[in-house]
Amino acid sequence: MSTIAALSTANRDKDLLIKDLGPYHYLHTILEETPNGVVVVGPDHAVIHANPAACGFLGLPCGKLVGVSFREILGEHNGDLFLLIRDHFEQRGGEIGGKIRHDVEFTKNGVRSILSGVVVFPPANTDYYLVYLIDITQQKNLEGELRRRNAFFHNLIDSSVDGIIASDMKGNIMLFNQEAQALLGYNEVDTETLHVTQLYNEGVAYELIKRMRSSHFGGKGKLLRHELIVKHKDGHDIPVSFSGGIIYDRDQEIATCGLFTDLRAMQQIEEDLEQSHQMLMQSEKMAGLGRLAAGVAHEINNPMSGIMLYANLVQEDLGAEHPLTSDLQTIIHEAERCKVIVADLLEFSHQTTYEMELVDLNDVIQKTLTILQHQPLFQNVEISRELNPELPPIYGNAIRLNQVIMNIVVNGVQAMEGHGRLRITSRTRANQDINEITIQDSGPGIDNKLLEKIFDPFFTTKATGEGTGLGLSVSYAIVKEHKGSIRVTSTPESGTTFTLRFPVVMETLTGENHG
Fold this sequence. Notes:
Number of helices: 18
Largest sheet: 5 strands, antiparallel
Radius of gyration: 45 Å
CATH class of the largest domain: Alpha Beta
Number of strands: 17
CATH superfamily of the largest domain: Histidine kinase-like ATPase, C-terminal domain
Shape: elongated
CATH topology of the largest domain: Heat Shock Protein 90
Helix content: 40-55%
Structural class: alpha+beta
Strand order of the largest sheet: 2-1-5-4-3
Oligomer: single chain
């Protein structure tokens, strides 16, 4: 009796099978007792034999499996397995042997199971093939749960507002989240060959490890809130707050990790607050000086008018040929200069009134440059304009704003001695609530010690007789009158930049007319 015939008989008379099998008795015992399912299937996919484990997996009594199509038992959703079996037979022709591995899904009593199937084609027989079934449902469930948790932690790390970087103890990058990529300019491909020491200045990485190993900076294996500089991919420095630590496997160091918080925005806020504080102090000082200037201007104006009146009367009486006429003309000229200074003082102290209306800042800039650009001092100056055509209007006085732009532009061109570049830009800031104008020259810049004084009345770096020192102080007063701000930055490398900011007229942004 053949083995296959004996196995087929087993389902009808197990005791007879065991007796007839003889030397196969032990193999049969192993087959019946193994926890893995074994199914013997004919070329037509009909089940020849199934051991108890397979019957349990498939949820059918062994006696009802024989002769049933194995394909029908597994269902059409597992049809890929039988396509692989068919391809195996077609490709090998008369040659038998080989294995196919394919997972199958099976549902019994409403419970879904996943079975790892291994199809074995015996090397010397074409009458059947074997299917070994191993229940991997728990394994697959654990793998799925692990994938979900990994996806969650991956999303959590990539959603962090801080850069997160981890490396092994040799410095090879293991983790480089999206915020770290954005902060330092690298992409995923870059990080595959990136060494952690490339992120710092020389020696810093080893100093961080040293401090992590110490117990004086947050506890052993930790380094908390440490400000340092990291290197962007293009080489520039980025200030960050670093917190990190060493990852241990029992007592063995296996990796390091770090959280990097970008400090540039915080530092900019601190600089803006300091600038606002300085401007507030300047405003208070200017307000006091304005009141003083108004009083002085009124006190000087009346006697200056008298001096000019009597000097003109004396000049008329003496005639043009009198030797004292030139002296009288000097008196009149100097008195007129005093009147100009008094007018500037009154301007500075808000003692004059002007009509306020909707103003287009781009139009103010264009008209100012039209007046100035044909002057001899501007002939060798390159003027570039980057004006936002969608700039909303502000509420102000175009003539007074023209004076502000003119003062700053003329000062910049004079600082460049008539040779250089002048760049003027306009744009919106703060969600279109603020209009910003920047005027940048390529001059030698202003010494830091002088920056705090440039808006002070009568302060000037020009030679005696070339300026009163009221131009920028008057400009400051006009900007404040328009509820705006003016600030200046300067370096020898980039020249001087004045930044003017004015609130826009909000009603125009919503389609309403200003009342």
